[in-house]
Amino acid sequence: MKSDLDALMQARNLDAILITGPAFHNPAMYYLTGGVHVSEADLIKKRGSAPILYHKTMERDEAARTGLALQDYAGFDYSGLIKQYRGNAVLASAALYQMMLTEQGITSGRLAIYGQSDAGNAYAIFSALQTLLPDLTLVGEAGDSLLLLARLTKSADEIERIRRMGQITTAVVGQTAEYLANHTVEAGVLIAPDGYPLTIGTVKKRINLWLAERGVENPEGTIFSIGRDAAVPHSVGNPSDLLRLGQTIVFDIYPCEAGGGYFYDLTRTWCLGYAPDETLQLYEDVLAVFRQILSEMQPGGFYPHYHSRACDLFEELGHPTLRTNPRTTDGFVHGLGHGVGLNIHERPSYGNNATHDDCLSPGAVFTLEPGLYYPERGIGVRLEDTLWVDPEGGIRPLVEYPLDLVIPMSKVKK
Amino acid sequence: MKSDLDALMQARNLDAILITGPAFHNPAMYYLTGGVHVSEADLIKKRGSAPILYHKTMERDEAARTGLALQDYAGFDYSGLIKQYRGNAVLASAALYQMMLTEQGITSGRLAIYGQSDAGNAYAIFSALQTLLPDLTLVGEAGDSLLLLARLTKSADEIERIRRMGQITTAVVGQTAEYLANHTVEAGVLIAPDGYPLTIGTVKKRINLWLAERGVENPEGTIFSIGRDAAVPHSVGNPSDLLRLGQTIVFDIYPCEAGGGYFYDLTRTWCLGYAPDETLQLYEDVLAVFRQILSEMQPGGFYPHYHSRACDLFEELGHPTLRTNPRTTDGFVHGLGHGVGLNIHERPSYGNNATHDDCLSPGAVFTLEPGLYYPERGIGVRLEDTLWVDPEGGIRPLVEYPLDLVIPMSKVKK
């Protein structure tokens, strides 16, 4: 949580942190500014002190909404720097950072850097800054970043924001199921009121509309894929595909608050009308693993242990996994889940790469999403809920939604 | 245009470029991949060769939609690298890049880096890579980047995509005007059908809905601000503000294609019912400058010249400008416009900072947006169209929409 930041900085021997970029669609900056429409900013926080936000004059009102101490970039003469460095924006920007950091008394010790930026810009500007301030060590963290560790557990306020996104997400999933169920079926294909077959593209457009009606964003899109596409985990679905009875649909939806705030993540697998035996068997295997893992999870448990347990269970059921064959595209071919928050994928991690010791802790929000995929058979099944560990150590979905496979169709013409 | 890339690389003595990050909401990667749902990728292009896209196994189908040559990250043993570097993700990532670049024969010469990334990650990983490949010079460009220069002019296909976004944008602006005009007015305030006053928050929700209905995104939000807020250029508007006759509304709308594709940008200033004389005068000043500059623009013209001309004109009319006082918040307080494309703000630049020579060229797409702001008087006026230079050198809005100030209200109760 945010309140852990100073302790985490101490543990990593960081004297200050710098976050750059806009305050929206930029999780690091959003985390400390809370969601405002500031398009360009730098936030500097010394250990033990409150953050300072540098902003443009034009955005002073929006910057003020953060409640943070503010500084206007106009206090520095950037145009003068550009002239001084003969148009070299890398050197001018590095010199501007030097001024800001000097103003904050940060010219030695260790400074860590975060925030969305152009990779080349960041490499060039901070390399130049490092030269300008040789006594200050610039630190870039990959993977195990301080902010991601702070964000491993969520405050009550963050939980409520994610739960609200869960309520919106499940409402839209329910609306989608009802919408599909109300279609007429002819020759095994769903037919829209205009007499033409319903397409995946139309369904996805409705989903976006229902999300927009509820005031949320869908920046990463939605997976709504059928048949062979459903059997490739990240295939988002072909807009011109038709909806046929008995084919598997993987519906993975992950909207966020407007402006790039908190996400929710949920997947259901559906068959319209009926499920073929082969699909039903895979669904039951996935459901069994989902339920078994959920029953085994307990506070203090190590996330990679549960991924490994899911591999055990799938392998016992006769399915290949990435553990038995790292390049398999059949069977259980992805991780068991991921943390959810200001990023759709964040810590905690189920990955066993020896860089972390993420354990189930109160305040953690993460997905559980076992799946099975057989592209050549045209079947994919995934079930995913966003779970949380409550303050008493209970582990459950933030919002409940039925896991049913079959959506009954009543208007079937022979 | 994309076809300029090799020549631009040659002019900058770049042997190769590397673009990192997702293929959506990441303009550099979007530019070369065209809009696919690939969440993590690296694109490498050698001068004179076609690009290669590195992707995850799970995203092979989406990656294939780019039509680019593909390589799967699974060809490298990242887990092994993480073990080798004892969990240090910075060093493991740098080693992975070393392998990818070596596989592509890029171990000497100059390599430029682009794409959305965490700033600290990028600084740390590319610093480590520079150490691993000392004969290769890693280049980060700020401001004047190769890709932004290529994107200075748009192909016919890009123009059509931006024009389509303009048609959607103007349709939603028209729908908003009609929606407001159909409200009842009581005591100078717009009243919704439920009997309560209409708020800015409700209007903005409707705008988002109308955009979603048309299948586009609005990742940066909309400015719809009234009164004093309208007088601060980047204030997005207070959701609880009411809509009062005679107050100025600044409506600045800039949606993009789903997935972070091409943007459009348009601003109108409205007064509901009537315009006070003071507002009308400012509006006429802004409109006069808008029309005068549009009439003066011609192919080959230097963008900063037109900004400077706008300052001349506003100063002649008695308004302060950033040229007369760099810290003024009254008068003409921002640039005259900006390029529009995969970023809402991109090259060409009207800024006169000696780093560029951007001139009006066929295929350029950019805004013209003079404005006047008087926060203490509670008035702001801005008029903005997205213009383009057609192949014959004609300069006009990509899509026409009336510049009218007053929206007549018919249902006024005394």
Provide a descriptive summary of the structure in words.
The structure is a homodimer of 414-residue chains. Chain A is of the alpha/beta class and 414 residues long. The first copy, chain A, has two domains: 148 residues, Creatinase/prolidase N-terminal domain (Creatine Amidinohydrolase, Chain A, domain 1), CATH 3.40.350; 261 residues, Creatinase/methionine aminopeptidase superfamily (Creatine Amidinohydrolase, Alpha-Beta Complex), CATH 3.90.230.10. In chain A, 32% of the residues lie in helices and 22% in strands. The first copy, chain A, contains eleven helices and 23 strands. In chain A, the strands form seven sheets. In chain A, strands 4-3-2-1-5-7 form a six-stranded mixed beta sheet. In chain A, strands 11-12-14-22 form a four-stranded mixed beta sheet, covered by helices on one side. In chain A, strand 3, helix 3 and strand 4 form a beta-alpha-beta unit. In chain A, helix 5 packs across helix 6. Chain A is elongated.
Can you summarize the main beta sheet of chain A? 6 strands, mixed
Helix content of chain A: 25-40%
Distance between the amino and carboxyl termini of chain A: 58 Å
Q: How confident is the prediction overall: mean pLDDT of chain A?
A: 94
Multimeric organization: homodimer
Number of helices of chain A: 11
Number of spatially distinct domains of chain A: 2
The CATH superfamily name of the largest domain in chain A is Creatinase/methionine aminopeptidase superfamily
Low-pLDDT runs of 5+ residues of chain A are none
The largest chain-to-chain contact, stated as pair and per-chain residue counts, equals:
A-B, 77 and 77 residues
- At the first level of CATH, the class of the largest domain in chain A is Alpha Beta
Overall spatial form of chain A: elongated
User: What is the CATH-assigned architecture of the largest domain in chain A?
Assistant: Alpha-Beta Complex
